[in-house]
Amino acid sequence: MVNTASTASTANATKAVNGDAVSKNVRLDFAKSARKAFRALIGFDAAAREGLDPALVELIQIRASHLNHCAYCLHMHTNDARRAGESEDRLHMVAVWREARHFFTEREQAALALTEAVTLVADRGVPDDVYARAAAQFDEQELAQVLALIFAINTWNRIALSTAKVAGTDER
After folding, report:
1. 138-157 burial by CB neighbour count: b if 16+ within 10 A, else e?
2. What is the spatial distance between Cα 108 and Cα 159, in angstroms, rounded to a whole number?
3. Phi, psi at residue 169, to the nearest 5°?
4. Which of 32, 34, 58, 64 has the fewest CB atoms within 10 Å, i.e. is most exposed?
């Protein structure tokens, strides 16, 4: 027996992105289907950002989204960074920040290295030197906030990827 509700939820749909029709595979709407979890994650995300420099927040979210191949979040956070005044040069260099260190402060470099280690934690854990570098740049509360933000963006990336969110369709 075919479940018509699940069949309907995986049907193709068309949406306009930048004036072009984009076909996408429609999967469940996590925000509607898991309302309590979604609201809790929004609260966690807001708490993680609290007290952090907005530019740093976006750099962390952009780098994690690169690593996770999450086009939806990458599009959203590069646009948010631009609206917040981030330069195109820095946005283009986030993916290769080690080769373009002069674009980023020591603090930002430490946060980007920590973002990579936590995002790719299954590869080699979080090396002591990466953690120590971040701990030298952030006080204990800030470091906890940075870690929480990294946890949050990795969760958002996984939601977007699992539910096949399409870059350019952010409806915030």
Report:
1. beeebbebbbbbbbbbbebb
2. 26
3. -110, 15
4. 32
